[in-house]
Design brief:
Blueprint lengths: L3 H26 L6 H25 L8 H24 L5 H12 L3 H13 L1 H40 L1 H6 L3 E2 L5 E2 L8 H13 L2 H19 L5 H11 L2 H15 L8 H26 L3 H10 L6 H10 L3 H28 L3
Antiparallel strand pairs: 1-2
Helix pairs in contact: 1-5, 1-11, 1-15, 2-9, 2-10, 2-11, 3-4, 3-12, 4-12, 5-6, 5-13, 6-8, 6-13, 6-14, 12-13, 12-15, 14-15
Membrane topology: Multi-pass membrane protein
Organism: Protea cynaroides
InterPro entries: Auxin_eff_plant (IPR014024), Auxin_Efflux_Carrier (IPR051107), Mem_transp_PIN-like (IPR004776)
Length: about 350
C-alpha cells in the first residue's frame, strides 16, 4: 500500500525540477535579468548542446538486445489506436480536420520522457522504470518524431503547392516558357513527388542535433552491447560534463519560455481543457489498452501508463512553431503540463499502486 513516504520520494525527485523552472521564470518576469534575445541564446545552448548530450548519454547506455519489446509494442499499439480514432474523427465529424489530427496526435502521444520521466519514475519504481523510460524516449526520437516531422513537412509543401496552383498571379509569374520556335507555352505546376518530400525531411533531420544524439547513441549501444565494450573515459567525460546540466538547463529554459508568454493559456480555456484531456487522459488510456493487449502486468504496466501521462514534449512545440500549426495550443500544453504534472502523476501512482494490475 502506498504511503506518505512513497509520495515524498516522488516529490523529492520532482521538486528540484520546479526550482530550476521557477528560477528561469523569475529571472525574466520578476528580476529582469535576461532580455528576449538573451533567452533565445540560452534556448539555443539547451537545444544544440546540453539536451542532445543528455539524450546521447542515456541512449548510449541502453542495451538494445535486452529491450522490453512488449513495452515498445504496447507503445506502438497505443499510438496506432490514437491514429485510428483521429482518422475516424477527421472523416466523420464536421469539426475534424487533417491539421487538428496532427496536433491531437502530438498532444496525446509525445511526452517529455527524459527531463521529467527519468527522475520521477526512478523515485517511483527504481532503475527498471528508468530503463523503460529511456527506451521509450529513444524510440520516440528515432521513429515518432521523425514521422511527425515528415507529416508536417508534407502538409507544408502540399499547402504551398496548392496555394500556388490556386493563385493565377503566381501561376503566370512561373517553371511560361518559349519553345524552339519562340512560341510561349504555359508549364503546368505539379505537386512535389514523394522522394522530394523525403529529401526535405532528411535535410531537416540533419539539422536537428537531437536526432543525431538518438542515432549515434543507439549505434554505440549496439556496438558496446554486442562486443561488451566500455566507452573510452575521455569521450564519456566529454559527454558528461555537458549532459549533467541537461535536466536543469532544460527546465530553466522552459521557465524562460513561460515568462516570455503574455499569459499561460495562450489558446483559450476550451482548447486548454481539450489539450489537458488528450495529454493526461487519452494518452494513458490508449497506453493501458496497448499494454494489456501485449500482456504487460505488474510494475511494468504501471510504468507504461504513468510514462504516457508525462508532460508534453518540448520538441513537439518547437515543430509546431516552425511549421505554424497550432503553436499556441502546444505552448499551453507544455506550460500547464509542467505545472500540473506533479499532482496528476502522483495521483496516477497512488491509484495504480492500489489496483490489481
Amino acid at each position: 500500500m502506498i504511503g506518505w513516504h512513497d509520495v515524498y520520494k516522488v516529490v523529492e525527485a520532482m521538486f528540484p525540477l520546479y526550482v530550476a523552472l521557477v528560477l528561469g521564470y523569475g529571472s525574466v518576469r520578476w528580476w529582469h535579468i535576461f532580455t528576449r534575445e538573451q533567452c533565445d541564446v540560452i534556448n539555443l545552448l539547451v537545444c544544440y548542446f546540453t539536451l542532445p548530450l543528455y539524450t546521447l548519454e542515456f541512449a548510449s547506455h541502453v542495451n538494445p538486445f535486452k529491450m522490453n519489446y512488449k513495452f515498445i509494442g504496447a507503445d506502438a499499439i497505443s499510438k496506432v489506436i490514437i491514429v485510428i480514432v483521429l482518422v475516424i474523427w477527421a472523416k466523420c465529424s464536421s469539426k475534424g480536420s487533417y491539421c487538428w489530427s496532427i496536433t491531437s496526435f502530438s498532444l496525446a502521444t509525445l511526452t517529455n520522457s527524459l527531463v521529467v520521466g527519468v527522475p520521477l519514475l526512478e523515485a517511483m519504481y527504481g532503475q527498471m522504470s528508468v530503463d523503460l523510460v529511456v527506451q521509450s524516449s529513444v524510440i520516440q526520437g528515432i521513429i515518432w518524431l521523425t514521422i511527425l516531422l515528415f507529416v508536417l513537412e508534407f502538409r507544408k509543401t502540399r499547402s504551398d503547392s496548392l496555394s500556388m496552383m490556386d493563385d493565377p498571379h503566381a501561376v503566370s509569374s512561373l517553371e511560361s516558357v518559349k519553345d524552339i520556335e519562340r512560341n510561349e507555352q504555359m508549364v503546368a505546376i505539379s505537386r512535389p513527388p514523394l522522394w522530394s518530400l523525403l529529401k526535405i525531411v532528411w535535410l531537416k533531420l540533419a539539422l536537428n542535433p537531437n536526432s543525431y544524439a538518438c542515432f549515434i547513441g543507439m549505434a554505440w549501444a549496439f556496438i558496446a552491447s554486442r562486443w561488451h565494450l566500455d566507452m573510452p573515459g575521455i569521450i564519456e567525460g566529454s559527454i558528461l560534463i555537458m549532459s549533467k546540466a541537461g535536466t536543469g538547463m532544460a527546465m530553466f529554459s522552459m521557465g524562460l519560455f513561460m515568462a516570455l508568454q503574455e499569459n499561460l493559456m495562450a489558446c483559450g480555456p476550451s482548447l486548454t481543457v481539450f489539450g489537458i484531456v488528450l495529454r493526461f487522459v487519452a494518452g494513458p488510456a490508449a497506453m493501458g489498452i496497448g499494454s494489456i493487449a501485449v500482456g504487460l502486468h505488474g510494475d511494468v504496466l504501471r510504468v507504461a501508463i504513468i510514462q504516457a501521462a508525462l508532460p508534453q514534449s518540448i520538441t513537439s512545440f518547437i515543430y509546431a512553431k516552425e511549421y505554424g500549426l497550432h503553436p499556441n495550443v502546444l505552448s499551453t500544453a507544455v506550460i500547464l503540463g509542467m505545472i500540473l504534472s506533479l499532482p496528476i502523476l502522483v495521483g496516477y501512482y497512488a491509484i495504480l499502486e492500489k489496483s490489481l494490475l
